[in-house]
Amino acid sequence: MGKHRILILGGTTEARQLAERLAPCADIDATISLAGRTVDPKPLPLPTRMGGFGGVDGLIDYLTNEKIDLLIDATHPFANQISAHAAQAAKRTATPVFALCRPGWERKEGDRWISVADIASAVDALGLLGRRVFLAIGRQEAGQFSAAPQHAYLVRSIDPVVPPLDVADCRYILASGPFDVADEIRLLADNKIEVIVAKNSGGDATYAKIAAARALDIQVVMIERAKPAGIESVGTVEAALQLIDQMLPPA
Ligand code: NAP
After folding, report:
1. pLDDT, tens only, 39-90
2. Residue 65 burial (C-beta neighbours within 10 Å; 0-12, 13-18, 19+)
3. Best mutation site among 48, 75, 97, 176 for ligand 1, i.e. most ligand atoms within 8 A of its Cβ?
4. Which of 71, 148, 208, 225 has its CA 20 to 30 A from that of 125?
5. Where in the chain are the domains?
């Protein structure tokens, strides 16, 4: 019997950790798929393919042509479209599938969160009076804050925000996690930040800004998740490895 062929939809720390655990497995032939959004992604320990599949039909073709035995959706908690495509393509090809999605952050005592459903609601939640905003939602949707030009923005992203925000006062920092609480406290204090806009991504790598906001009593406009439900989901790499064992017969 040949090796088990696994396709991991990636772009997350968890997908990378899973790849590191699967790479040495002699009975597994896994490929990781990236959308290609990050200009210079860190190399992965598995064969990597780049770019969209061309919608659900393209993903169906890929699963069929590559004889994929198991599809793992390890995309970011806010990558909703690819997750919907993964669920549909797996169903239509009868490919076993599960999601690896880290749990969201829970509100703790001292947190001053305003939970909102989407970016447009986050823009509204900043209010009419100009405030000093730390925008930590990644670059893809940052442009939507041009709708609220009364605020002063500090925008952090891995790659540059193109085009820049159409507002009078905006500065940009390029950085990728993991971030440290003491550094985040310094960043927020030095820039006199009054409110943070964040996605409830979960995980440790970007939690420091939330802890820093609590320490400095700063408000957080927290954009909550809207992942499509419907496929089995686990929250940790360990649980994913167990599920792989259960779903794939011994080679
Ligand atoms: P999305 O809105 O859910 O997907 C948009 C399209 O991008 C999909 O229809 C698909 O194109 C392509 N795509 C997305 N993920 C892919 C993958 N892993 N491999 C191949 N094609 C993929 O996705 P997104 O929110 O733009 O996220 C893109 C990537 O960045 C994902 O890998 C995600 O894990 C990562 N990421 C996202 C965020 C975030 O906040 N959204 C944060 C960190 C990392 P086709 O329809 O042509 O197949």
Report:
1. 778 889 999 999 999 999 999 999 999 999 999 999 999 999 999 999 999 9
2. exposed
3. 75
4. 208
5. 4-102+227-247, 113-223
**Amino acid in the structure at residue 2:** G
Q: What mean pLDDT is predicted for residues 139-151?
A: 97
State the closest ligand 1 atom to the C-alpha of 201, by its place in the atom list counted from 1.
40
Average pLDDT over residues 194-200: 98
- Ligand 1 pocket list (CB less than 6 A): 9-12, 33-35, 37, 52-55, 58-59, 75-76, 78-82, 85, 138, 140, 199
Please give the CATH superfamily to which domain 4-102+227-247 belongs: NAD(P)-binding Rossmann-like Domain (3.40.50.720)
Q: Which amino acid is at 6?
A: I
**Best residue for ligand 1 mutational test, from 62, 76, 140, 200 (most atoms within 8 Å of Cβ):** 76
Q: Which residue has the tokens 């030095």?
A: 190
Q: Can you give the pLDDT at residue 80?
A: 93
Predicted pLDDT at 16: 95
Q: Which amino acid is at 136?
A: A
Same fold flag, 4-102+227-247 and 113-223: yes
- Classify domain 113-223 by CATH architecture: 3-Layer(aba) Sandwich (3.40)
User: What is the model's pLDDT at position 41?
Assistant: 81
Pairing between β-strand 28-34 and β-strand 113-116 as defined by DSSP bridges: unpaired
